[in-house]
TrEMBL record:
GO terms for molecular function: diacylglycerol O-acyltransferase activity. One of its GO terms (biological process) is triglyceride biosynthetic process. This is Acyltransferase. The chain crosses the membrane at residues 21-41. It is found in: Endoplasmic reticulum membrane. It is a multi-pass membrane protein. Belongs to the diacylglycerol acyltransferase family. Keywords: Acyltransferase, Endoplasmic reticulum, Lipid biosynthesis, Lipid metabolism, Membrane, Transferase, Transmembrane, Transmembrane helix. One of its GO terms (cellular component) is endoplasmic reticulum membrane.
Length: 335
């Protein structure tokens, strides 16, 4: 296949958009390793004293990722995020008002390869979350492992990322006065192995932990569907039962991380690379599902609310799919 090179003359705005997405992909794939290497280098060189002081501070600050994190409005409003938004572009769509006096648990679907829509909408202000939902503070849940890495943990917390462990979710949803939003990519890393253009497979039938958490804290459930999330990357073929999928699933069980073998385009050519395609993302926030506070929910109560959530999620998808490029004959595949 011949290589399609990017034109030599492109508007400055497009170059800035590409640079913004390039640094975002780097932050996902390599920034954690670079931060760890930098910390170890400081520890072994002349900066060992500041490194030791930082290590002591890390111990004192160890609970912060599970207690709301430490967001920075300055970081969330960096101009680079507007260029990131415009690259795809990403749009946040509001379908119903949300009372800021309540706490919410957003179920984000699908996970995609790198959850670009979740990051753009809930870890930055580029798409106007604060204007669309005044009085609400979003927190995107991320695997606890990432908050154990020095320096990197502080960077991701500045955007509003918090640990996904139970204590973190409970802390957010127990806040008096409301206004807190815990955003969880329900399918988790395993669902990223299903992400490819045209895919509509959601791993959700056995995912009921977020339902139980909503009941325990009386937090309203909100289904969120991000149209276009799976269109950003191709993946190496990995059907269920294949050797590639077996290795990926084994590594996921051992490491807690999924390793999708994805590819899309490059910086100076459009034929191969790790940059996502310029494909629009429309993240549609559904209407809230009222949830009664039930400190010790029964299995039956969890199953009923889970069934209701699935109905609302499917309805949200069906009502909006033709607006955002999904053929009318295509439907969600829930597994």
């Amino acid at each position: 296949m011949p290589i399609r090179f990017a034109p030599l003359r492109l508007p400055l705005r497009r170059r800035l958009q590409t640079a913004a997405v390039l640094q975002w992909v780097f932050s996902f794939l390599a920034l954690a390793q670079c931060c760890l290497a930098l910390f170890l280098l400081a520890l072994l060189r002349e900066l060992w004293l500041p490194a030791l002081l930082y290590l002591a501070w890390l111990y004192l600050d160890r609970e912060t990722p599970a207690r709301g994190g430490r967001r920075s409005p300055w970081v969330r409003n960096w101009p680079v995020w507007r260029h990131f938004r415009d690259y795809f572009p990403i749009t946040l769509v509001k379908t119903a008002p949300l009372d800021p006096a309540r706490n919410y648990l957003f179920g984000f679907h699908p996970h995609g390869v790198l959850v670009a829509g979740a990051f753009g909408n809930f870890c930055t202000e580029a798409t106007g979350f604060g204007e669309l939902f005044p009085g609400l503070t979003p927190h995107l849940l991320m695997l606890p492992f990432w908050f154990r890495l020095p320096l990197f943990r502080d960077y991701i917390m500045s955007g509003g990322l918090v640990s996904s462990d139970k204590a973190s979710v409970s802390y957010l949803l127990d806040q008096e006065g409301g206004g807190q939003v815990a955003v969880i990519a329900v399918g988790g890393p395993p669902e990223s192995l299903e992400a490819r253009p045209g895919a509509l497979t959601l791993q959700i039938l056995s995912r009921k932990g977020f339902i139980k958490a909503a009941l325990q804290h009386g937090a309203a459930l909100v289904p969120v569907f991000s149209f276009g999330e799976n269109e950003l990357f191709h993946q190496v073929p990995n059907p269920r039962g294949s050797l590639v999928r077996a290795v990926q699933e084994r590594l996921q069980k051992l490491m807690g991380l999924a390793l999708p073998l994805f590819h899309a385009r490059g910086v100076f050519q459009y034929s191969f690379g790790l940059l996502p395609f310029r494909s629009p993302i429309h993240t549609v926030v559904g209407a809230p599902i009222p949830v009664p506070r039930t400190p010790c929910p029964s299995r039956e109560a969890v199953d009923r609310l889970h069934a209701t959530y699935l109905e609302r999620l499917i309805a949200l998808f069906e009502e909006n799919k033709t607006k955002y490029g999904v053929p009318p004959e295509k439907h969600l595949n829930l597994i």
